[in-house]
């Protein structure tokens, strides 16, 4: 009986930055898939409101990992971080072990004023977008 790559009940965890950090992890994730090793890959992502609008390092990360991982998830709200991570860890370990990808957009991880500064804006946008950002 061969020894598992990761001791039973344990999971490998890696955290990478958005864009190039995520794409540079593809080979490692494929190796984890082939070795049936439970792995949780946490990837940064552009702010939710900037998705698909040409934001820095905004690429379709979740679809990229759907074919390599048992699950590829994106957290949309702070209250969803813990349940999503719990689900991801369970998924990585159950059945045939393997990698799971969880995308964490910057606006879910940091307070609004930090994200606003990072995006280079000091005043709140007007209109519907401004109301969404303030909300």
TrEMBL record:
PANTHER family: 2-HYDROXYACYL-COA LYASE 2 (PTHR18968:SF166), THIAMINE PYROPHOSPHATE ENZYMES (PTHR18968). Residues 9-59 form the Thiamine pyrophosphate enzyme N-terminal TPP-binding domain. It comes from Edolisoma coerulescens. GO terms for cellular component: acetolactate synthase complex. It holds the Pfam family TPP_enzyme_N. It comes from the Eukaryota. Its cofactor is thiamine diphosphate. Belongs to the TPP enzyme family. GO terms for biological process: isoleucine biosynthetic process; L-valine biosynthetic process. GO terms for molecular function: acetolactate synthase activity; flavin adenine dinucleotide binding; thiamine pyrophosphate binding. This is ILVBL protein. The lineage of its organism: Eukaryota, Metazoa, Chordata, Craniata, Vertebrata.
């Amino acid at each position: 009986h061969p020894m598992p790559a990761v001791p039973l009940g344990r999971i490998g965890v890696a955290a990478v930055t958005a864009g190039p950090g995520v794409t540079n992890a593809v080979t490692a994730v494929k190796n984890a898939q082939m070795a049936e090793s439970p792995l949780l890959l946490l990837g940064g992502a552009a702010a939710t409101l900037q998705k698909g609008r040409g934001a820095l390092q905004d690429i379709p990360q979740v679809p990229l990992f759907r074919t390599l991982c048992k699950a590829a998830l994106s957290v949309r709200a702070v209250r969803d971080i813990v349940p999503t991570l719990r689900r991801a860890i369970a998924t990585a370990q159950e059945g045939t072990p393997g990698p799971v990808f969880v995308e964490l957009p910057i606006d879910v991880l940091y307070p609004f004023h930090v994200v606003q500064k990072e995006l280079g804006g000091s005043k709140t946008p007007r209109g519907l977008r401004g109301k969404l950002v303030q909300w």
